[in-house]
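agent> step 3/5: call structure_predict on target 'TauD/TfdA-like domain-containing protein' (Meyerozyma guilliermondii).
agent> reason: downstream docking stage needs a structural representation; sequence fetched in step 2, passing through unchanged.
tool.input:
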Amino acid sequence: MHSDTLTIEILPNKPFGCKVTLPAYCKGDPSQLDDDDFKKLHDAVLSHLVVVIPDQAELAPKSQYLLTKRFDPTIPEPKEDSGFAGYGHGKEFRHEQSVLRKDGTTVKSQPQVQILGQGTFGAHEPGNENGSDISLTHPSHTTFHHTPLTPKQIQEEHRTRFYRWHIDSALYDLAPPLVTTLLGIKVPPSTHTQIVTYDDGSNDELEVSQGATCFVSGEQAFSRLSDEEKKFALASSVEYAPHPYIFISPAGATSDGLTMVSEGKEMALDKLPPWEKEKIKTLPMVWKNPVTGKPHLQVHGCCLYKVHTKQDDGSTKTLELKEAREAVHKLMRPAIAPSRVLAHAWSQGDLVIFFNRGVLHSVTGEFKGMNNGKDERRLMHQCNIASGKDPVAA
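tool.output (status=ok):
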C-alpha cells in the first residue's frame, strides 16, 4: 500500500541503512518526488548512508540521472562536447591503462549513466538501450589482487574477496560525487551465496549473496578509533596520485581490498598521461557529514600517494607511499570486520542510493563459470556525478 508521502524503514539486523517506499503520486519514479519528500530522501541517504528503493527495474536512465543530480546543487551543467558529461570518473574511466577500463559501458542517451554487469546482452534487452549488443565484465579480484584465490577455492568452495574498497571518484581534477545511484535490472537469485575470504591471518569471512555490494560506514570507522588515532586522522590530509587508476595499474591489491601491496610496481609519474600539479587531489582524511555534522573517515586506500599530518608545533609530517598505505590500512581494517559490513543482496529492481562521501563500498562475487559451468549474467545502471565542491574537513 502506497501512502501519500515517502516512508522510511530501518533495515533490520544491519549495521546501518534503510528502505524507502515512494508515495503514490510519483508513480514509481523517485525523480518526481516533490520538494518535501525529496528532502526526506536526501536526509535519509546522508543519515542512514545506504537507502534501498525496491521495484525500480523500469526506471529510465534520464530519471536516474535527474534524481542523482538533484542531491547536489553544486553540480555544474554538463558540457555537451564531453563524452562523459560530468560522470564522476571523467574520461579516465575508459583509458586503456586504467584499472577501471573494463567496468561497463555508457548509456548513449544519458552518458552520466554507466551499464555494469556480466555477460552479453542483445539490443533492446532490458537495461540495454544502446541499439546493439553489449558485453559486460564483472570486476573480479583475480585480475586486481596481488595473490588471488585459486580456481578450486572459487569454483568448488564458492569463495570470493572484497574486490576494492573505494569511494566513487576520479580523485584527480574532479571533486568526489555526493551520492551514487545503483540500479539492479538483471541480477542472479539472492539465494546464490559465496564466502568473502579476508586471507589476512584473522580467519574473518563473510557469507554474502553472489555479487553483493558491500558497504562500511565512515562514521563508524572513525568512532571506533582510539583517541590518538582520531587526533592523527583529523590532522591528516591524503594526497592522491595523478591519474591514480593508471598509476596503480601494474600493482596488486591486498587480500582485503583496502590498499595496494607496495613492491615499487606503480607506474612512474613521467610515464603517466600528461597531468597538471594543480589538478592533483589532496583531501581531508576525515569528512564532515553536512546533515548529521558527524565525522567520517573517508580514504581511498588503493589510490593514495602520500599522507600529510599537521604536527602540534605547526610543522607537517609526510608519509610516503608505503608508510602511508600501512598507516591507512591500520586505521581502516577494523572498519571492515564482518559485523560492520552491510552486504546488500540484490533483488531485481532494487535502486540503491548511497552517500558516497560517508561510506566506502566494494564489489564482491565471482560470475565466471558459476552458473553450472556457464557465466552468470547481470546488468545494472550506475550513476554518479562529479560535484562542484570538495568535501569539508571535520
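agent> step 4/5: record observation. Residues 35-48 form the longest helix (14 residues).
agent> proceeding.
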